[in-house]
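Next comes a concrete protein, fold included:
___
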Amino acid sequence: MISLSEENNLIIDYTQLVGHSCVVTFTSWESGILWTNILEKNRTVHTNFLDDPSLSLSIVHDSPEACQWVDKIPKDLIGKLLDYERIYHTSIYSLLCLLNRYQSAIDLFISNPLLMAIVMHSAKENKWSEETTANLLLEKRIKILEACGFSGDKSTLKIINKLSYRSFTLQKYHLMQTILALPNKHLLNHLPYIDFNLFRLLTSHPQLLSSRLLHSYQAEWPILKFKMLYADIGRMADNEQGDTEQKLLNSRTIDELEAMHDRYTERLNARRYNIDEIEDINYPVAPIAGTENIIPITNSKELLREGRKQHHCVASYHHGIVARRSYIYKVIAPERATLEIRIQSSGHHLGQVKLAYNKMPSKETFESIYAWMES
């Protein structure tokens, strides 16, 4: 329940929501933003700007009862504040306190809301006082970044200004810290597009940062396809001599990487052309019992035949099967496919599923596989 006092203080009554007496009051913009709560008749005034009452400005803004309180917030800020609350996921109350008291906070908030969000996350994590935070806002942006645990250089600031995003959460703040600590992070500035999907990719493949492959990176760049091709090539090249990693990083496009993958697949299958002459190794018991349409591959010769018939690199899974990291099945219907079950301490999980020539299966095929796993 939302109401206003005679002094234009915002009153939010949470009693029905929490099941006991709980009323929170926010003083108005012209009086200086503070909040007070009355909990079971005990009144507490919160002077620490980081004490978060979980104020939702969007709910208050849409409430007719609160319009006079909202109207006191400068009109050039209110729209930006609503956007900030939707995108940046930091305490809107803490931000209101700073904006209400310091022109430097308003200046940074309007000109660079992402940097403002970084300051808010850092203040919360490091338990900065209001004075410490306010003094930091007077510094140059490079100094602000340095105080927030980032490299204080123009390259870092340029990356942050170039970053594309729809939301900025605490998790993304930590991800940003990880990536911008890389020694060659300045190479990000040479890329046409930067986003958090790229940052996540670099946490598992930091070597990509110096590759030619990322020069074509865009929002729709096929990250999942890259990971599949990269993992397959790594398995197929495991027992070969040569600079496979460097060749991989020299690929300029995903198409070039896929062509490299196909060459390795052909080489793998051609190397064991006469299947009847090679040693037959029996595999451990399948982790999930097969059916007439999903059949476990129980030995190395069957695995090689599957790879040759389907024209893909499933033969490279041999060592993983022997080590009980994964298991391979051939799918007969609704489409002819090959599937991987990953064996982990947390249970059995679906890995890759491919038709011949690494084509993607239909939704119907996936549904039948999930039904089999759940049964």
Summary: The two ends are 48 Å apart (CA to CA). Residues 254-271 form the longest helix (18 residues). The mean pLDDT is 90. Residues 157-211 form one domain.
